[in-house]
Amino acid sequence: MSAGTTPERTPEEATLRRDLGFRDLVVYGLLFIAPMAPVGVFGTLDAKSHGAVALVYVVATIAMAFTAFSYAQMVRVAPRAGSVYAYARVGLGKGPGFIAGWMAMLDYLLIPAVAYLFSGIAMNSLVPDVSRWVWTALAVVVTTLLNLWGVRAAARVGFAVLAMEITVLVIFMVSAIVVLATDGAQRGWLSPLTGDGTQGTFALSAVLAAVSVAVLSYLGFDAIATFAEEVTGGSAKVARAVLFCLVLTGVLFIAQTYLAALLEPTTSAQLAADPAKQGSAFYDTVNEAAGTWLHDLVAVSKAIGAAFAALAGQAAAGRLLFAMARDRRLPKALSRTDSGVPRAALLVAAVITLIAAVWAARRDDGLDQLTSVVDIGALTAFTLLHASVVGYFVVRRRGEQISWWRHLVIPVVGAAITVAVIVEASGTAQVVGAIWLAVGLVVLVVQRGREPAAPQA
C-alpha cells in the first residue's frame, strides 16, 4: 500500500463519508484541545510544579511534539479511522494494535467526561443555584445531538465556538498585560518558569509530575487522526493539521499560563495546602486582577468551549469504537453507519461519557479522580505509537526508504518521554491503567481463542 492511499476494503465493510477539509480538521483539533484548556487545571499544575506552571507547558509541548511527529509519519501509511489502533496493527501486529486501541479507548471515553465536567463547573460558577451535574448532563445531550447530525454540521458550529474562544483568550491576554503594566506582578517575572519559591527550591521531579497532568490539555491533536477516512485530498492534510494544532496550542498555553501565574495572588504552597481552591484558581485570579466582567466572560467561554471540546472528543471516541468493531475487535453493531455517520458507536460513547461525567460532577473530588486516570491510557497508546513507527519502517522495512532520524531517533526519544511521564504519574492513575491493561489482555486472549484455526497445508 502506498503512502496517502486508502486501504482496500471488502464490499460489505462500513465506510465513512468524506466531508472534511484542512480547516475542518484544524477546527476539530483546536476544539478538542480548547485554546483555553489550561484554565481548568491551572491551579492543580501551579501547586504540583511549585509555581513553574509555564515551564510545565514548555516541557509538555516539546514532549508532545515527538508524538505529533510520529502521528504524522503513520497517518500517511495507515489513513484509517482507528488512529493509533490502526497504526499499531500495521507496525506491530494485530495483538499490539488491539492493546493500543484498548488503552486509547480509556483516554477517548474519559477525556470528554473531563471536558463536560469543566463545562459544568464553569456554568455552576455563573449560576450556583443549578447544580453542576445538571449543567454537565445538559452539555452532553446538546453536543451528542450535534454529533449525530453529522461531522460536517458539527464542524460548522464548532468553527463559530472556536472563534469565540480565541476572541476571549485575546481579551484576557490584553487585559492581563494592561494590569501588569499598571499594577505590576504578584510574583517574580521569571517565577512561572523557575517556581515561586514557596515550596522550596526548583524541583524537576515536581515539574514532570505536573507534566503528567498537563498532557491532558493537549489530548485532541491526536484525535484529528481518527478522521483520516473523512478528509478530502489525502492523508497529508491530516499530518499537517496534527502538527499545526500542536504548535499553535503550545504557544497559546505557555502565554496564558505565564500571564495568569504573574497575576496569581495565591502562592503555590497555599494552593497545594487547599486543593479545593485549585479548580477555580484561574477564575479567582482573573476576578481579582481585572474584575467580575472578565471572570464571567472567561467562565462563559470555558463552559461553551469545554462542551465543544467534549463534542470533538466524543466524535473521536465514536470513530475509535467504530474502527475496532469493523475489525471484529468490539461488537459488530458498533460498526454500523447511517448516511456515513457511525451513530451506534457515537451513542455508546455518549452514554459512557454521560455516566462518568455526571458521577464526577456529583463528587467534590470528581475532577481529580477523572484527570488522574485519563492520561495513562493516552500515554500508553502514544508509547505504542512510537513503537509502531520503528516497527513499520525499521523492523518490517515497509513504505519509504528508512530515515534513521525520522523513523528511529525521534520515536525512541518520544517513547522515552512518554514512559518517563507515566512513571511520574499518580499512583492511582498507574493502578487504574494497569487494571485496564490487564482487562484488555484478557479480552485479547479470549478473542484469539475464538478465532478459527488456520488451515493446514
A few lines on this structure:
The protein has 457 residues and is mainly α.
Discrete helix count: 17
Oligomer: single chain
Spans where pLDDT lies below 50 across 5 or more residues: 1-13
- The amount of helix comes to over 70%
Largest sheet: none
What is the alpha-carbon Rg in Å?
21 Å
Report the sheet-strand fraction.
Answer: under 5%
How many strand elements? Answer: 0
Category by helix and strand content: mainly alpha
Question: What's the N-to-C terminus distance?
Answer: 27 Å
Give an overview in words.
The chain has 457 residues and is an all-alpha fold. 72% of the residues lie in helices and 0% in strands. The protein has helices at residues 22-33, 38-48, 53-75, 84-91, 94-126, 132-149, 151-183, 191-194, 204-218, 236-263, 268-273, 281-290, 292-326, 343-361, 366-395, 404-424, 427-450. The protein is globular. It starts with 21 loop residues before the first helix and ends in a 7-residue tail after the last helix.
Summarize the helices and strands and which ones pair or pack:
Blueprint: H1 22-33, H2 38-48, H3 53-75, H4 84-91, H5 94-126, H6 132-149, H7 151-183, H8 191-194, H9 204-218, H10 236-263, H11 268-273, H12 281-290, H13 292-326, H14 343-361, H15 366-395, H16 404-424, H17 427-450
